[in-house]
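Hey L., structure's done. Input below.
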Amino acid sequence: MVRDYSSVFDCLVVGSGISGLAASRRLVEAGFSVMVCDKSRGVGGRVASRRIEGAPFDHGAQFVTRRSAEFSKIVEDLLIEEVVIPWFGEAGKERYAGLPSMNQIAKTLAEGLDVKRGMRIENVRFCGDYWEVSSEAELVRSRSLLMTCPAPQALDLLKSEATEPSSCVLNTLSKIEYDKGIALMALLKEPFPVSDSGFLQYDDPEPIATVADTLKKRGLESPGVIIQSGPDFAERHFDSNPDTIIECLLDAYPRSKELKIVSTSLQKWRYAKRREHGISDSYSSDPSIMLWHAGDGYVAPKVEGAYLSGLRVAESVAAELELKLK
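Output:
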């Protein structure tokens, strides 16, 4: 049986990554009714973490930066709330780690929002005055639709939409492409010094792009390392057996024989990092059908870029909703 929400939301946000959460917070602060839906069980998108035998591992974004005034304000608030701590970097270029994990940043941004987890969108349809968005079990109506999922996923949904959406939006989405990525998390028996800072980024990102030391990162949990692959390695091995991937990544790490591994876990990201493109806008939109798309596909391919895209798209959505609701 499909649950049909009787009320019409002002905005339905597809995706509870950093961009979707930032936009939703801003719209709620402006007085609009917002529902956020996500196919995952949690929030945060690639600001993701899991536990291995109780120890937290960040298997997506390893840190956040603060280059803009808007995101600096958020980082300041998170520092006060002890949700982030300085990790490494010189003044003005600091990197901040989440406490007790990176995913706590997303959980904090999601507080107070109406987030529907585990809702996999199957169809979207513009009906003139509102959008109908449906999953296997639910039907939601909204005056506007903001998609913050990766562009290829948004493109697939919009292509199946009965009323052809703006070709401009579709053209923009088709230009946003992503590299795959694989993260190997290894819980260790004893501390392992990756580098002075605890983070190592290779000039040549193949086959390994970065290595992070979880103990150096926060100093509170069991020792461990996170090895993130380069895009070429991920493309070649994405469908390989997990044991094969683990063996290949460890073989590629020059100091792997020094690791006293207790347990391992893998995470594959189909949309790990967006490739460079010539898009200068912070989002794409067609206000004539109350449709927007935002995320780390714009501004910059990092957490701060996704947040800024979310803020800027929220301003556009809010302006159009105010006109529509007059």
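The first strand starts at residue 3 and ends at 9. The chain has a mean pLDDT of 93.

-- N.
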